[in-house]
């Protein structure tokens, strides 16, 4: 577990978004990615969303006021920890590496949440999870149609219903917050 955690925090080059993922790997002394650039980009984007949602849910849990929002954070944590682990298992042999830290958007949300508690925190958390989840669903739906690698496509197909379950839970909690 310690080795897995250490690997998770390995970060890709900051220039990776402007060059191919294989080129970024080679610059870091790693083997090139063994799937198409588009398939690898899906995996990296899926990982970024999953990592953000885990980190933000962990942070928010202590600050949330309602039972519904706390339950939502628990659900997202439980599911995304499994999703993230599955994604790493699939992508590691394909030489796809992720930056395992909050994205700029995730860090901005966390910074904004520093002073929030109770109902204000519930609203901010649910709104952020709603936006992230809608983005994730679109990403996974596109992957189901477009990804060529069989194991990455199967990952997207398997986990798309989980994301839709999250959206239903998010909407239910949203409707309960006043």
Strand and helix map with partners:
Layout: H1 2-8, H2 21-27, H3 37-61, H4 67-91, H5 104-113, H6 118-146, H7 150-176
Helix pairs in contact: 3-4, 3-5, 3-6, 4-7, 6-7
What can you see in these coordinates?
The chain has 178 residues and is an all-alpha fold. It has one domain: Up-down Bundle (Ferritin), CATH 1.20.1260.10. It has seven helices and no strands. Helix 4 runs antiparallel to helix 7 (150-176) and helix 6 (118-146) runs antiparallel to helix 7. The chain is elongated, with a radius of gyration of 17 Å.
Oligomeric state of the chains? single chain
Structural class: mainly alpha
What is the CATH C level class, in words? Mainly Alpha
User: What general outline do the C-alpha atoms trace?
Assistant: elongated
Spans where pLDDT lies below 50 across 5 or more residues: 1-18
For the secondary structure, the number of strands is: 0
N-to-C terminal Cα separation, in Å?
41 Å
């Amino acid at each position: 577990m310690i080795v897995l955690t250490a690997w998770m925090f390995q970060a890709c080059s900051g220039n990776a978004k402007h060059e191919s993922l294989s080129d970024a790997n080679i610059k870091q002394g790693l083997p090139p990615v063994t799937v198409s650039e588009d398939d690898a980009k899906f995996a990296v984007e899926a990982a970024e969303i999953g990592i953000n949602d885990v980190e933000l849910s962990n942070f928010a849990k202590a600050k949330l006021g309602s039972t519904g929002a706390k339950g939502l954070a628990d659900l997202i944590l439980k599911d995304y920890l499994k999703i993230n682990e599955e994604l790493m298992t699939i992508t590691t042999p394909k030489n796809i590496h992720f930056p395992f830290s909050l994205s700029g958007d995730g860090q901005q949300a966390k910074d904004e949440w520093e002073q929030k508690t109770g109902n204000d925190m519930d609203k901010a958390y649910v709104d952020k999870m709603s936006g992230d989840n809608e983005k994730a669903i679109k990403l996974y739906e596109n992957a189901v149609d477009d990804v060529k690698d069989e194991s990455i496509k199967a990952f997207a197909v398997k986990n798309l219903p989980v994301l839709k379950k999250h959206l239903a839970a998010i909407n239910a909690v949203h409707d309960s917050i006043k």
